[in-house]
């Protein structure tokens, strides 16, 4: 049994991960299984640290003033003894009239040297003049100590850059952002008066004191803690995960059955359930597999640039091939070839429910494979959220964070390729189906609007594919049934609900109404794209002159939070744009039935839930800086409402 060196409630010095800085922390608890101490910093940040990263406060006591050495051979005056055989030089005698150079006085300011430890344990430390209730004060740093010193923030190398039109050149990105700036004491004093936790500074260390390992660690962002069994269960915990595993497929089938009926009102619920044997077709399942592997082959093509993912808990960065837009173009060519050779695309419409069943079975088989393979993975390859130890919950959430077969990343591939491109392909099929079912020479204006709006959304996502590398799905969530079913079934079959609805329930709209809907969708897209582009540009280069007017709040992690521009309007302006666009997609279906608006209602619930997850993670990660941001930006998604 390991000895407990630090007790709960004890105030010690904790090393900030990825640096050599030590700060005052309070021990919260010790995990006996992982041997990790949970500590709390003064800004509210809570982290788990190894025992080697903690030191007693007594280790940081400064040496006594004026004692350069304890060696008896060196006196405090540092005077040099003369040999008895040498007298004073005649030319160097002092007289009352001669001017002498003043001797070097022992400056009281310079006696306040930083704490010196053995080289193996030597940290760079800067403590504010404060203490916990226990009364332990490390060191008071006065203005005189820093009157001539330059303070430098920790360097942050930002490599999480998003794709853009100007940068879509097929080459890996090499540029790095350096946030190093020089601040004299008056500037630092003003910032400290506003908020003592705004900046984390370190005294510029001597070259011989900097370790290569520490420099490498500073380049990595502290995004994930060491993996252990999660205690914070989401989506209703084990019971919620169990029921959602069945509720989600049932919801998809109910929606498709109701939209396929002549009467789609709520009074017609539940819909008539067809015979089970009619739901399965081997040919349909084969087409689903063919589509899946066709997209996988495109993914493996050596086209498009290779981007780095965010740092993992073990310090590695995975490589990702950014060629989603190429996949869309090649898929479009394949569909055009199918039309040229008169292949009947309406087969998808005629067997739509069977395609949904086949896609569900495919997602289930994939989820089982993912769960089985995750049992042999190391702890640092598992996601924090899906490693609870409960089979049902872990199967639903997903245990492995980045399941890969060689360089083929299963989660990243499924996130956009098969489902998103399949969504607009189904929309095109529904456009042809509307023309055939309603005997039209051209599609209706409503169908054209729905197809156009959603095509723009998909093309935008694929063009900016690199942006998903920093999303919650990729960075935080494991790959289990929730994401597999969502990517392969929910997205293509639920998101295409408006187009499917218009086939059997046409709705004619006038040009003025169509114009108003176009304006609404354009506004939503402008908010969505403007917010994401501003965030991505700031991540690539915070010092871009175009962003000079943006104000930020620095955080203890080295990142900055935007408090002006789109992100000073609401905390999640991209979510607001998403909701506006979702409404615009449903309006062409009219107001006869509520079913076409299911997507809007679902999407609002999804984004509100995701926003709540974001809030919890950001508060835990950024501490006081996030609280300041929330005070500056009061509304979460909808201004003056939520």
Automatic annotation (TrEMBL):
EC number per UniProt: 1.3.1.70
Biased composition (Basic and acidic residues): 160-181
SMART domains, alphabetized: TUDOR (SM00333)
Predominant cellular place of this UniProt entry's protein: cytoplasm
Keywords of this entry: Cholesterol biosynthesis, Cholesterol metabolism, Cytoplasm, DNA-binding, Endoplasmic reticulum, Lipid biosynthesis, Lipid metabolism, Membrane, Nucleus, Oxidoreductase, Phosphoprotein, Receptor, Steroid biosynthesis, Steroid metabolism, Sterol biosynthesis, Sterol metabolism, Transmembrane, Transmembrane helix
Membrane-traversing stretches: 239-259, 279-301, 322-341, 353-372, 475-497, 509-528, 548-570, 590-609
Compositionally biased spans, kind Low complexity: 67-76, 84-100
Superkingdom: Eukaryota
Claim: Oxidoreductase is one of the keywords in the record: yes
Any one of the GO BP annotations: cholesterol biosynthetic process
Full protein name: Delta(14)-sterol reductase LBR
